[in-house]
Structures are given as structure tokens and as C-alpha cells.
Amino acid sequence: MAFGFYSLRHVCLTLFFLFISSVTFAEISNVDIASPDFVLENFQMSYFVDISEEMTLEDVQQQTFTPSTNSVSLGSKAKTTWAKIELQNTTKTIITAFLHHPYAYHNKSVVLYEVVDGRLANTRILDMDDPASLTWMLKGVAAYDVHLPPKQHTTLYIKSVSFSHQWFSLDLYGEEQSRRALLGQYTEIALLVGMLLALIIYNLSLFAFSAQKEHLFYALYLISGGFWSALSYGLLADLFEVYGSVTINWHISLGAMPVFLLLFMMEIFETKKKYPIEHKALAITATLITLNFMYGAVDIITSLKHSNMLAAIMMVVSLAVSVSMIIRRHPIAPFFLLGHSLFLIFSVKALLFYSGRADFTYINSHGVGIGILLEGLVLAFIIAYRIRTLEAIKASQEQLKIQATTDSMTQLFNRGYFNQQVRSLINDSKCLEMGSYIAIIDIDFFKNINDSYGHAFGDKAIIETARAIKENSRGSDVVARYGGEEFVIFMPETTQCQAFELAEKIRTSLKATLYTDDHKPLNLTVSIGLCEINDQESDLDICLNNADKALYIAKKQGKDQTKVYSEEM
To answer: 288: which of 60, 193, 440, 477 lies 20 to 30 Å off by Cα?
Structure first.
């Protein structure tokens, strides 16, 4: 029994010492460099957070470092952080290693200390606000060349000082591998921003042509999100070599993004007109974010801290409104919720990353940019859906307008539209100076046609007459079915000779164009009355009455003829 207890204790002690040994090994493990050609993007290092922000290298060397990978995110309470990398050149020649700090562009300063076998060999200070110290900045990447003596141990201490949130990644390369890494550093960010730029141009174009505010708000949302992505992920540093405190103020663009998104929601859901409670919630949230945005011009650091809380409020309100719209069966709501949910999911991952509560992965570190792009693509679908819906409504309105102005049987204008349009035209002095004519056309013996062949055949006679009038009229003429079997034509800027010729052309084209049920031709004829409209007589009702008098004379004198009104009538 005692032997068994002793054996168990021995095993436990052995496991304990093995665990301690592994931790100790993790703290002091070296990164072996055995060739001048190498790529190290995933290795063991350690870090120490200097809360006092005043420690010297000698002070820091006495501290206990926390083992970690070469990529860390430590939140806003670790503004001054020291990283320690243990290197061992196992060859017999000097090897030049290149230490990359890919996210140096967002730091206040980066200082590299090289300690060889316990002695400080080199110190390089990179102050982002001091152009003279930017020797080791290549676009947005800090790249230090480190000479490793043969068969010796080198410790690199990297002091990283951030403006607000501390996160960085450190990579080691050989000379050729360093060049290749620098070439493709920001390719995927350029692609992301390029896609956002295409959506921005598209929506600004839509706004220019339609003046619909949702296109403007959506474009501004993408502009602020795209600018922040280019700034935060190093594209602006790569293209324009802008670093330091000047860029920290530009991070306020992230605060503008939710404001434009909330305005976009108000517009597409028409909350101001239809949903007052939801509109009030969106408006208050947008106001709070706007005030914080304006405060950022005075104190950007405090503004960024408040932005985390406001971002949480915005997420809750926007989700609640989206769910409310789904409950109210708004057709756009499911698509908006899908896109917004994607943005929120990736933004939460990024928020956890920046606060030091999530692992340093590409998706976590670039979560906001990915979320903006995904939401932007879904919102682009919503925009397309809205355009299609508005076009359908416009087409429906046009159809209703056509129905309101058109005779359904003949597809000619109706009486109401004719009177309105012609009155508008005769107000044009040019029309009156050059003279215009009104023609009234009436089908001869129409009652006999209906009585003999039925109303369906009578309708055919009306349709055939309308066809003949339409085919022989000019493009400038206004043609309408005035009622029953009667038609009217307004002929602007027309002489009496031209009006009479056109009337006769219509009259003669109608004969023998209809066949009865027993295939016998029907001699369809019309009588026509003409009257001039000029500056002496421009009242439409009087002119129509005069044209009707001329039509009466044509009927009385045997039908199937054209008569022009004169004062003798």
C-alpha cells in the first residue's frame, strides 16, 4: 500500500517537473537560424507589458516575459509592450535576418534592441512622427536588418508603443524572402478597397441620375468604411507613406460609417413616414454617434474609447429595427438583416481582437473590413431590388396614365385628353399664327350597321375607322375617339389645302375594308367636317362646334364627303 502511494507520488512529481520544464523551455526556447534563406512567420516569442510606460531596457530585462506566438493582440491597456525573440545562428558564417513589423504604420513608435551574448550591440529607434527616423520604414512595414554572428545567441527586444490598442505581428526572413514578402504585403487590402470603390462609383452615379437619397447614404457609408479599411490595414501607408499621430485622427472615419448606415436604413424602410418608433430609435442612435464623431475632432483617443460602447448600441438598435421590419413583413428586411448580420459577426470578432480577447488571425484582425465588404455586397442587392421595384411602380403608373388618357377599344386618345392637350397647344402663338385645323369624322349609317350586323360588327367598324385615321395622320397630329362612332383630329400648323387632302385620304382609304360574316364586302364610309383655328377664333369649343356644323352639311348633302366650315354655314 505504501509502495503504491509512493509510486503515485513519484509519478505526480515527475509530471509536475516535466510541466515546469516545458514552461521554462517555452520561455527560453531559441529560434534556430541554420540557413541564410528562411521564412519564419510562425514561431515562439514572449512579451511583457510595461504599465508604467517608462522602463528602460535594463529594467525590462529583469522582468518575467509571457510566452506567446509571434502575433499578439493585447487591448488598450498594453500601450507599451516589449516583445522578446531569442535567435541562435547555428552556422559558421554571419547571417543577415530581416525582422518585419507589418503593422508598424499604426504605432506611435517601434524601438529595436539587439543584445548579443548579453551585451547591447545595436539600438534603432523608429518614431513615426519623426521623418528623420523612418529609415527602416518600407511603405507601411518596419523592416530591420539584423546581423547574426556565427554560433552566437542574439536576443531581440522590440518595444512597441501604440496610440490606443496594442496589436502586432513580427516575422523573420532571409534577404530574398524579405523582398518577396514586402511586394505582396497589401494586395488583398487593395482588392477589398477596389471592390468598395466600384460600389461607391456605381451608387454615386445612381444618385446623380435619380436623386434618391438612399444611393447617397449608401455611397457615403462605403466611402467612410473603405477609407477606414485602407487606413487601418495599411494601404494608405503603402501608397502615400503616411504614418504617426496624423493618421490616428483619421480613424474618426470609422465613427461616420454607422451614421450613414442608420440614415440608409431610415430611407429604405421609410421609417419617417411609416414607422415612427423605429425612426426615433434610429435617429437618436445616429445623433449620439454624430456627437461622438464631432468630439473626436477635439479628443480622438477618448472618442475611440466611447465608440466601442456606441458601436454596441448601434448593433442592438439596428438589429431590433431589422427584426421589427421582418415582423411587419417589409420585403427588404430579410436581405438587410442578412447583410447586417454578416457585418456584425465579423465586427464583433474584430472588436474582441482589438480588445485582446481573441486570437490573432487574419479574419479577426481584418474583421471590420471583411464585414463592410460582405454587407456592402448584400446592400448592393437591396439597391438593385429597390431600383427594380421603383421601375415596376413607375411602369405601373405610366400604364395607369395611358389608361386614363386612352380609349381602350381603338387605342386612340380619349375625349378628356384631347381637350386638355389641344387647349395647351393652341395657347402657343406659333400654332395660331400659322393656322391649324380641327377635323370631326363620323361613320355613315352606323346605326344601320349595328342593327343589321350586330354590335360586335359595329365595334369592328369603329376599330377599322380608327386604324385608317391613325395610319393616314401625321406625327404632329392629335387623334382621338371623341365618343361613339365619332373621331376628332387636331392638325397643327396646317393650311386648308393640307387639311382637306388629309381628310380625303382618310375617307377614301376606308371603302371595302370590312367583310360581313358571309364574306361580303361592306362599303364603309365616313363624313368629315373641317374648321380652322387661328388668332381670330381660337376657342376650342367654338371651333369644334363649327367643325360639327360642317360635318352636318356633309351628312345632309349625301354623306361620304368632306366639308370645310365657312361663315355661311
So the answer is: 193
